[in-house]
Amino acid sequence: MLRTLYRASGAILKNSQRTVPRWWMSPAQQRWASRLPVNTFILFVPQQEAWVIERMGRFHRILEPGLNFLIPILDRIRYVQSLKEIVIDIPEQSSISLDNVTLQIDGVLFLKIFDPFKASYGVEDPEYAVTQLAQTTMRSELGKLTLDKVFRERESLNSNIVHSINQASDEWGIRCLRYEIKDIQVPPRVKESMQMQVEAERRKRATVLESEGTREAAINVAEGRKQSQILASEGEKAEQINRAAGEAQAVLATAEAKSKAIRLLSEALAEQNGNAAASLSVAEQYVSAFSNLAKESNTVLLPSNTGDISRMVTQAMTIYSTLSEPRLKHESIKAEGEEPPVQSTSA
């Protein structure tokens, strides 16, 4: 019985659909009619699909996934909406940028139906409407940007297109999830100009980097020379200080040696037969000096009593004793712990 009723209802529905000529329908209606299921009283709605039911030409309800019952002839499946994410390929189109460059651009649109009622009765063909809206929005957004910004701000361009589409498609029960630009083609001459610009920019960067390298090298060389000069001057300064300290120490050592020699000589003269030894030493030096006079110069000046050597030695010893007597007296007083008398000199 049920099977018979099922077959009868299917046949009646098919005959009722054939009564309407296909040339009366629009392309969207023909597409919808070609994929609509037949009302067979018992229907099984697949998951992620929404079936819009009309009763006697008026919206009745939306079938949920699973088992559903309909009244043949009275109830009609008018629309079948897919609740899955839909991918629409936006065909290539031409648009003009802000700097009057004609671009050929295409994209991919991702959308989803969130209200089957609005998607069925809000617009005749939702996919076609969204496609046209995406194309016009793309032209509008590209007209706000220059050619350079189109490539740099591609992500912001996609987000602006999505925002504009959602503002208009909210009444259609459709939400645009994202939009991606697939390809952007520019005219050949513009492409050549862009290539030349890129090459010029690269040459500019190379020149700037080379000049910066040369500057850094010059700075490094100057810093090295400065450091070397500073180190050389410090080394020369240390060398002079060391040399001066060495010369001072040498002068002190020489003075101490002379003072020790004079002290020993004075002690030797103070001993017994010291004057005789001093007379012998002076006589030897006197003879040696006269023997070297003729070797150093052709002109020799001699005293009148050159032959009287004893007198010359006596005179030299008198002068030596006169010069050494104050010193010996000063040393004897210093040895006894007394202060030496201060001698006043008059000009």
Topology:
Blueprint: H1 2-18, H2 27-35, E1 42-45, E2 49-55, E3 58-63, E4 66-69, E5 75-82, E6 85-96, E7 102-113, H3 116-121, H4 126-142, H5 147-152, H6 154-169, E8 174-185, H7 188-270, H8 274-296, H9 309-336
Helix pairs in contact: 4-6, 8-9
Low-confidence stretches: 1-33, 338-347
By secondary-structure content and strand pairing, the structural class works out as alpha+beta
Largest sheet: 3 strands, antiparallel
The tally of strands reads 8
End-to-end distance, in Å?
166 Å
Main-sheet strand order equals 3-2-5
The helix tally amounts to: 9
Mean pLDDT: 76
Tertiary shape: rod-shaped
Report the C-alpha radius of gyration, rounded.
63 Å
Topology pattern, helix = H, strand = E? HHEEEEEEEHHHHEHHH
Strand content: 15-25%
Helix content: 55-70%
